[in-house]
């Protein structure tokens, strides 16, 4: 290692190893990967470190878990890492649009098994359940349902959510957002979505499953976005 070079954390080495095996086809879709115990021995680390690596890959959609039978390569398609992460507020303001957020729901719930895996938390840990209607120039653009750790962000408030959540994270909490991973699927709009968007009930719209990561690999939030494709074009710039 050259002088001044950063040492790669062990959990990141394990992530890279698993990803290489997925991309090479050594780990086939739907097939189990090595056990936590095997990876722990291979890298001479605790199972907690192994779990951090696998939890991150579960959150990003590359792996899935089946209770009592291990960790498997996910069947779903995963969209690659974006080169830049811009908040909706930043994006709309760059286009000269007036941004507003209507908080439809903001409460604390116990993390389900699915949400705890997405956020790399213990089951039943307190998490925020946040639903916002994001608008540009008064036009509804998307419905955003987010989950965040209460213990990590105890000062998150209704007032902060009425503005930019990313500004709260970066400017008030002084944290750095590094990248996000997302999966995009077409869905048919529900009556609730049609009510908010006024969209064509016979035309599909987009749903985005997004996990945002901070520098260092910790997870900021897990978000599901429903996008009004008649008003807003979802774009992503990706790295190879």
TrEMBL record:
Supply the alphabetized keyword list. Answer: DNA-binding, Transcription, Transcription regulation
What processes does the entry annotate via GO biological process terms?
A: negative regulation of DNA-templated transcription
| GO MF term (any one) | DNA binding
This protein's source sits in the domain of life called Bacteria
The protein's matches in InterPro entries, at most eight in alphabetical order, are given as: Bact_HTH_transcr_reg, Chorismate_lyase_/UTRA_dom_sf, Tscrpt_reg_HTH_GntR, UTRA, WH-like_DNA-bd_sf, WH_DNA-bd_sf
HTH gntR-type domain mapped to chain residues: 8-76
Q: Known PANTHER family for this protein?
A: MANNOSYL-D-GLYCERATE TRANSPORT/METABOLISM SYSTEM REPRESSOR MNGR-RELATED, MANNOSYL-D-GLYCERATE TRANSPORT_METABOLISM SYSTEM REPRESSOR MNGR-RELATED
Indicate what this protein is called per its UniProt record: UTRA domain-containing protein
Native organism is Salinicoccus hispanicus
């Amino acid at each position: 290692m050259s002088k001044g070079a950063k040492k790669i954390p062990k959990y990141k080495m394990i992530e890279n190893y698993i990803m290489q095996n997925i991309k090479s086809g050594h780990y086939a879709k739907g097939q189990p990967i090595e056990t936590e115990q095997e990876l722990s021995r291979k890298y001479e680390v605790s199972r907690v470190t192994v779990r951090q690596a696998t939890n991150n890959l579960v959150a990003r959609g590359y792996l899935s878990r089946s209770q009592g039978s291990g960790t498997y390569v996910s069947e779903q398609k995963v969209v690659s890492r974006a080169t830049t992460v811009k908040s909706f507020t930043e994006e709309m303001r760059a286009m000269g649009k007036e941004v507003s957020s209507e908080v439809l729901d903001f409460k604390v719930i116990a993390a389900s098994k699915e949400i705890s895996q997405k956020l790399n938390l213990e089951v039943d840990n307190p998490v925020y359940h946040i639903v916002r209607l994001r608008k540009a120039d008064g036009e509804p653009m998307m419905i955003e349902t987010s989950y965040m750790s209460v213990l990590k962000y105890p000062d998150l408030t209704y007032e902060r959510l009425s503005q930019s959540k990313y500004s709260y994270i970066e400017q008030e909490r002084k944290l750095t957002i590094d990248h996000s991973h997302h999966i995009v699927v077409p869905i048919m709009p529900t009556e609730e979505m049609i009510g908010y968007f006024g969209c064509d009930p016979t035309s599909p719209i987009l749903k985005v499953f997004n996990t945002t990561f901070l520098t260092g690999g910790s997870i900021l939030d897990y978000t599901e976005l429903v996008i009004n494709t008649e008003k807003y074009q979802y774009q992503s710039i990706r790295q190879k």
